[in-house]
Design a protein that fits this description.
Blueprint: H1 7-31, H2 34-75, E1 79-81, H3 100-106, E2 107-109, E3 165-168, E4 171-174, H4 175-182, H5 190-196, H6 216-227, E5 230-236, E6 244-249, H7 264-269, E7 273-277, H8 284-294, E8 303-306, E9 317-321, H9 342-351, H10 371-384, H11 404-407, E10 426-428, E11 431-436, E12 461-463, H12 464-471, H13 475-483, H14 487-492, H15 495-520, E13 523-525
Parallel strand pairs: 12-13
Antiparallel strand pairs: 1-2, 3-4, 5-6, 6-7, 7-9, 8-9, 10-11
Helix pairs in contact: 8-13, 10-15, 13-15
């Protein structure tokens, strides 16, 4: 008959056996001398201590591994479901109303409520992107002495008095300070004269030579516009044209074009060397000049930034070199502006006027401008989105309320597009074959989905040199190197951060233009005319 062995009997037998074994060992130890007995006890204690320490270290290592695994799960940013070995597997599927502690032990969120604190960098001054006339900030009116008070009046209501201001080409000026500048050479106001002649040139060239796309005449003109001593400031106005504000200087300047080409009448306008003062919001004039030189077009008039004491808030103004041969005269025969409608312009593109030096027939409708000049103008205007020349009525894009064509109501005259007249088309009186890019008011805040492709209509060829620069991936490098020369313009746009934003816009438009060239099969040819 088999006997059943219970688990409790096994435990009792093990305890009895261990006790009897311990008694036998203790009896044996008692028989040894005291010296050997102490040695055995010390050895047993060391073995026990070693065993305890190893067990504690193993448990701590295991715990660290579990913590690292837990931290790794947290870093992944996900919520995971974990089952403990000592908890039943049904815990994850426990019904509502189960013990919350069991739920917390099984569902462990690995994303903790952590608040990340970052230190914001110092805000850089944003670039002044010339797109619209932005409203001026309202400032508290301060009481001034009678000799310092100025008032703002609209153009057309000005009387040339000492206490009045004038609004010319978007510039609020004080004729009192201008009169002081005009009389500075006579010792009337030496203080104001010192303000107009900087000690350090704002045209900075640190290398031995200027960038290769600038000629010696360009550098000379830039230094003249930025650093010359102003002797007189006056207004120049012609029929059907906006009055210009000019400053004169007796400083020497080696002109690009000799004086013999200028009309005698122009010397009455500017006796010495002159520059045109533009509005502070027209800073794109300076950028356009550098872009023109970098692309190798060489059709823009030199322009730099300069500060004047009579301009509100001391903002730098674009200053463009005065060229008397560009200004239309009082008589219709003496005007150098090309008068042409959009229909006549498209017809001249088809006839390729003056191409290969072939003189067009008198009744062909061709102007004096060479065929390739329109291609250069179209590329230049598309990159800067200058619509005031080829699309003055804003027929090729969606204008805004702030655009000039909307304010003047021209955007409603797009029905008969062939009769729309071109504007700001200039050539020098002694050089009727080549255009001069004047009044280059570009727009940098126009998105790629609202570009004016009307500027490229009818164009079948584009200049090889300019397209090569756009494709070389070096446009940014050259523009940075070029614009760095004009320190005042560089700083007014927020330094390199602001300049980079403007170049970003031009680069994106350049990619759009290259895509347009491939899609429409436009030829890229050498245009050395």
């Amino acid at each position: 008959m088999e006997t059943l062995i219970r688990p409790g009997d096994i435990k009792k037998s093990l305890i009895l056996w261990s006790c009897s074994y311990f008694l036998r060992i203790s009896n044996c130890v008692r028989r040894y001398p005291p010296s050997k007995r102490n040695l055995i006890i010390v050895g047993a204690c060391c073995v026990y201590l070693f065993f305890v320490v190893s067990q504690v270290g193993h448990s701590l290592l295991h715990q660290d591994r579990r913590l690292d695994r837990h931290q790794y799960k947290k870093s992944r940013g996900l919520y995971t479901l974990r089952f403990d070995d000592d908890s039943p597997s049904e815990t994850a599927d426990s019904p509502t109303g189960a013990n919350d502690d069991s739920l917390l032990s099984s569902v462990v969120p690995t994303r903790s409520n952590v608040v990340y604190i970052t230190l914001k960098s110092r805000r850089i001054k944003p670039a002044i992107i010339r797109g619209t006339f932005r409203p001026k900030l309202r400032r508290k009116a301060r009481r001034t002495k009678p000799n310092e008070g100025f008032t703002q009046n609209k153009f057309g209501t000005l009387k040339r008095e000492e206490w009045r201001q004038k609004h010319i080409n978007g510039i609020d000026i004080s004729w009192k300070q201008i009169n002081n500048i005009n009389h500075a050479t006579r010792g009337v106001s030496s203080n104001l004269k010192m303000q107009t002649e900087p000690h350090v040139s704002s045209i900075r060239i640190y290398s031995e030579r200027a960038p290769p796309w600038f000629s010696k005449e360009d550098i000379s003109a830039m230094r003249f516009l930025a650093d010359c001593k102003i002797s007189r400031i006056h207004e120049v106005s012609h029929k059907e044209s906006i009055p210009l504000l000019l400053f004169e200087s007796t400083s020497h300047l080696s002109l690009i074009h000799s004086d013999k080409h200028n009309d005698v009448k122009d010397h009455k306008v500017c006796i010495g060397q002159c520059g045109v003062i533009k509005s502070p919001v027209d800073t794109s004039e300076v950028f356009a000049f550098h872009l023109d030189r970098v692309l190798g077009l060489n059709r823009s008039v030199p322009a730099v930034s300069r500060k004047f004491p009579f301009v509100q808030d001391g903002q730098p103004c674009p200053v463009v070199l005065w060229d008397g041969s560009l200004s239309p005269g009082d008589n219709a025969e003496g005007q150098s502006t090309v008068r042409m409608t959009w229909g006549e312009y498209q017809s001249s593109l088809k006839r390729r006027c003056w191409h290969r030096n072939v003189t067009p027939k008198p009744n062909s409708g061709c102007s004096s401008i060479h065929h390739y000049e329109w291609s250069k103008l179209a590329l230049f205007d598309f990159l800067l989105q200058i619509y005031s020349r080829l699309d003055r009525n804003c027929c090729g894009f969606r204008p805004r309320q702030e655009d000039d064509c909307v304010e003047q109501g021209h955007h409603l005259e797009c029905g008969d597009m062939d009769s729309v007249a071109l504007a700001n088309i200039f050539h020098r009186s002694h050089d009727p074959r080549h255009l001069v890019f004047a009044d280059n008011k570009g727009f940098f805040d126009r998105d790629e989905d609202n570009l004016d492709y009307r500027l490229l209509e009818g164009i079948k060829e584009l200049p090889e040199q300019a397209v090569t620069v756009l494709m070389s991936q070096r446009l940014r490098e050259r523009l940075l190197q070029s614009l760095f020369l004009d320190q005042l313009y560089w700083e007014s746009q927020g330094g390199r951060h602001g300049i980079e934003k403007l170049i970003d816009v031009i680069e994106r438009r350049a990619q759009v233009l290259l895509t347009y060239i491939n899609a429409h099969g436009i030829k890229v040819v050498t245009m050395n005319v």
